[in-house]
User: What shape does this take?
Amino acid sequence: MMDLDKFKKVNDQFGHEEGNRMLEKTVSIIKSIIPEDSYEFRFGGDESGVSVMNRSVQEARTLAEELVKKSAAFQNGRVNGICLSAGLVDTKEVPVDKLMREAGRLLYRSKNKGH
Assistant: This one.
């Protein structure tokens, strides 16, 4: 699960059209990084998720770190404080009915740490 920190600033400072362009570019970055057998989906606003199939937790973590890094590089200098935060959950360790809650908890932990 992931979202753009302080994304509201983009819409407030540059308008919703620019916010939409930033979301489209972020999705483009996500799709360029995730494996073909993975799925990207949007919850709403700037929140989205990726289901990485047939990969180890470390491989998924590496993908998430690359997403954060490429997203930050794209947004650098545009709006101070905008970055991607992610919460990574291993489906082997978390029951299916608790995945979203745990991913959300880890996402907010990441946001609070500033990564």
Observations:
- The first strand starts at residue 2 and ends at 5.
- The CA atoms of residues 56 and 90 lie 9 Å apart.
